[in-house]
Amino acid sequence: MKAALASQQPSDLIIIGAGAAGLSLLLALDDINYPHTVTVLERNSGPLNDRIWSFWSTDTQNISLGLLNVPRYIASIISHKWSYWSLSTSQSNYVMRSDVYRYCCVRSDDLSRLAQKRIDQNPRFRIIYNSDVTLVRTQDNICTLTSNGLAINARKVLDTRPPPIDKNHTGLLQCFYGEEITLSEDFFEPSCVQLMHQLKSAELGIEFVYVLPFNTKQALIEFTCFSLHAISKDTLKLRLHGAIKELLKQRKYTVERSENAVLPMYLLNQNHHKKNENVCYGGIAGGAMRASTGYSFLNSQGWATQCARELMRFNRFSPTAPIKRVYCVVDMIMLKVLRDNMSIGVSIFELMFKKVKPARFVRFMTQQATIVDFISVIWAMPKKPFLIAACKLLINKK
Q1: What CATH number is given for 1-81+101-163+268-323 in this structure?
Q2: According to the model, what pLDDT value does residue 274 have?
Q3: pTM score over 0.85
Q4: Which of these, 34, 245, 298, 393, is most buried using a 10 Å CB contact count?
Q5: CATH of domain 172-265
């Protein structure tokens, strides 16, 4: 659905970007019958099938127990679930399995279709494509956005556009290129996600292949590296094709689609979030991504639900950060360890799979860890490099 940009009355809320964060807030607002107008501005010409977001969630059989950690409308568009996830190196292979938690994925086009369905049923909501926002300014509690040369007014603005990569960052960058492929014969094991296949420390950084199998003939395969610097798409694509050749041998396949990104694995500067109470940042720009893992979808869901309630009750954005402070501290120490010695990364991830129980691992990854879970994860790590990194960070902070 496309709508004209011109409007006599300002929207109560404008969301910049029809990605995971923007559409999640729209759906959360619709779910609680938000009575005000919401406009989503998206720079692309229409919905894209360019992302698959993955996360851990409790199995649907536990919904009645109140254990589901995604909203029900998101649960309705989960396209696949896996009971097993694995890590492998050149010498070892580790597999985790859980009877409660499942590794899940949501496709970007399914999220867009769900949002469009809600928009079609709600006259207060709309989405406008081909809207490239170039400027946001505020005056007298009114926000004015410039898009395609036109001025649009709103009382509040949520900006979900990803921030530019900070060249002086103190963490890492997660660089990946992936292709969703289809084979003419059975090959993939559809019950197990290969989170880190052939994990190794090499010239690009910490390298591995991510395999998300949808059935025996179809999978998303990504070459991923945790690097100090951004890696070009061409280099990542070349590495992926080498990995696919090694994985599939001589099997022929067709490419259905591709995806590519460079994600910031460092804590973003949150000071700009507080300069105006009528402008808020969501998604990666809003701090929804775990710096040490690159996962953000589940955090965006929790933030969207909380933010919708705050807008409904108090007409303000949620003051609660998507990532809890204790996880930010743990991530900072982890990233410091990796920056000081990238080669230790393989041992760290291998030890986590080897010594941490699957349920504890999932709760730690999804910000639901108990004290015992934290102790278990910390105890599994090599002590000396983490203590040194923690001391360095503490000294630099003083």
Answers
A1: 3.50.50.60
A2: 55
A3: yes
A4: 298
A5: 3.30.70
